[in-house]
Amino acid sequence: MRYAKIVFILLVMMAAPFLPPPANVWAEKSDNLIRVGLSGIAPRIEFRVETGAYALMDSATNLPIVQPKPGQLWSIIKSGPNLKVALNGREQKLPFDGPVILRAVDEGLHLYTYNGTKYRGDLIVENRADGVMPINVLPMEQYLYGVVGQEMGNSAPLEALKAQAVVSRSYAMSLKNSLGSFDVGIDTGTQVYRGYNAETQANGDRVVAAVDATRGQIVVYDGKVIRAFFHSNAGGYTESSENVWVEPLPYLKAVPSPYDIYAAQYENQTNGWPSVSYSWQKGITREELYSQVSRWNKKAENNDSLNLINVGSISDIKLSRIDRNGDKDTASGRVTELTLIGDQGQASVYRDGIRTLLGLRSTLFNISFDSTVTVLNGRGDQGRINSLDGSYSAGYDGRTTLVNKGEKDVFLQSRSANRQIPKKFSKVVIEGNGYGHGLGMSQWGARGMAKDGYKYDKIIQHYYNQGLDNGNLSIETIY
Is 0.85 topped by the overall pTM? Predict the structure, then answer.
């Protein structure tokens, strides 16, 4: 068996004499390379070379396996503790320890297809205990070609695209070496990345131009690259990080974002987008609310950071906007605590968790009930309550009686009209502004600023340093 392995390696090397001397791709990792996890762990992955010369190599031995030709379907398969290579479904007998690397071997454009998407750069297939994991390794600028337009939109003004390029580069740089064997993913968990496919979209050349114009530039605060969070639309005001998540960061402070309204004024509206990123409305029935609470509780059973919501029949929902310090409302007016009140107690959800619970675009909202009434108390003071269930009314003779005992609805009469409302709400209507967590740069705010003549550096100063020119924040070129 050992003899067969040696013969196989020699035959492969003879069949591919053009291959460069063995080299470990990890040894070449530098500041301008990024590692992108293309998917989770799977039993196998498949790819095709599209353009350019590649070599498939075994990283454990630094020896070439084969030269994949354009159009061929290759698979890397988890087989026991090892990896197997297959062409068009036919497995080769020789196993490899891995990682297996699909590596470009000369200059020029190199592309391969994985999972329906074309990618530049190299492909590393890691050997994990329970499967294989594909990782795209490529220069940072080429990675950004596939990110900036997907996040900002290819049609955005050039200065907004430049701002997104610098922000996305900074965010990616801040994540390097923080996730193990890869730095970023391909979805909103980090940044949306669509590989070379993004470059071929309409106006993709504008994105490439914006990335190239800001090559190597990152945002630095007090000498450190910032975790440059961004979102779609702030709804008029961004928020400080401690009022959305936990950690207070000096470059994520609340600032006015008046240009967010540009989304509502944008001439190319498609099914209400992007106007609904600025202002929106959502109705939730009582049944839908219970379903959302149930989904939340299922997550909470396996997540100690989430509290269970067991309040029985819900009669009211209270909102608080108090900031993390507990002494004033949040600068943006975002909700920081939502309390569900029921006949078995009450439970609260905090800050950005509120978006998850109710499926909202942001936490900048108000809520109304179809059961809300304006009442007078015993002192003649006027107030609004959201539930008449269990309430008593007082007659002229001083007697009190349970409101519409035994019925689900109440009938209200005024001088001008009569109406029927439920004693407990059957539906709530949530009216809000903004889309996303509200931290850092508002993308539609940046687009509006750029349209009004602001340069990309001023946009970045506004959102990450409150528009101050005090030397704390700078844009540095690192390569």
Answer: yes
